[in-house]
Here is the input.
Amino acid sequence: MQRIEPLRKPVSPGRHGRSAAAALVLRCLTAFLGGYALTAALATLVARLLPLSRVEATVWAMVPAFLVYALVALWCFHEPRALRVAAAVWGGALVVGALVWLLGVRP
Here is the structure.
């Protein structure tokens, strides 16, 4: 005889549902806004450090920036710990942005 499983009640959006939604919102904001901030800061730093003319350095820094942004966004959703992702992306953006600010405008 085949055993029939009882129907499971739908899970109400309680504490677990809200925390999962908050983690997803954190990941989305980190991936889209934080990833953009980190990638823009990295591209600016690379363009500042390359020994080329301003235009050439900007182009050479921006080309791999698209790949970096995509990789950061993918990692934001792949990593199991949302706080680790947020700390790495936002912290990296702050550190690289501070380095760019300390270097100043390219002569």
Remarks:
- The chain has a mean pLDDT of 89.
